[in-house]
């Protein structure tokens, strides 16, 4: 829901309860998150003013102010001076920073990460085959051709090549036409960014292998061949692991 028009009129007292024994700031943050999870508020909705929220939740205005700073940093709300605080409708990457931090801290094994990517990517290509528009297939082809040209270089274009590799997967995610899966896939690929960069730093033979598996995924999606796409993803995972750890 866009916030360009008049915001919805909501009775927040029906959704919010007074603070239990917990950190006031955490309580406010979690209360807003619960409203979103329960779909009591939607992207584009305006939240109550600071004074009203503090009364509804039985917390100080200072706690509400600090909570809004936290939610703003996470990309969940947007504070518009002179207008109010709105639930963000932009879905920025910042929302996933805590998840990214959690994964970094947990230090998952590479085998676990590889399995996570395999599960996601198989479903992404399956839905992309089912739902991709012709212009998305063209964009995927264009991205691959650019990637292939860059991989013929001498290694001085690694930054551009990395961006192109991530763009290839972004287009795949968009083509699957499943918002939550697209967002999660984008997050996971962002987490794997350092691994992809590491594989690109290897020699020319490594670049050829990477080009070959990207081409197999592209051809399978273009041909709307689910079984071939799944085989291409499996091969891609093995090649990717080899390139990451190749000395």
Largest sheet strand order: 1-2
- Got a strand count? 2
Strand content: under 5%
User: What's the pLDDT, averaged over the residues?
Assistant: 83
* Distinct helical segment count: 11
Quote the CATH topology of the largest domain.
Four Helix Bundle (Hemerythrin (Met), subunit A)
Question: What spatial form do the alpha-carbon principal axes imply?
Answer: elongated
Which stretches are low in confidence, meaning pLDDT under 50 for 5 or more residues running?
A: none
Tell me the CATH architecture of the largest domain. Up-down Bundle
Helix content: 55-70%
Number of self-contained structural domains: 2
Question: What is the gyration radius calculated from CA atoms?
Answer: 22 Å
Descriptive account of the structure:
With 247 residues, the protein is mainly alpha-helical. It has 2 domains: 80 residues, Arc Repressor Mutant, subunit A, CATH 1.10.10; 150 residues, Up-down Bundle (Four Helix Bundle (Hemerythrin (Met), subunit A)), CATH 1.20.120.530. Helix content is 66%, strand content 3%. The chain contains 11 helices and 2 strands. A hairpin with a 3-residue loop joins strand 1 and strand 2. Helix 5 packs antiparallel against helix 11 and helix 7 runs antiparallel to helix 8. The protein is elongated, with a radius of gyration of 22 Å. The relative contact order is 0.09.
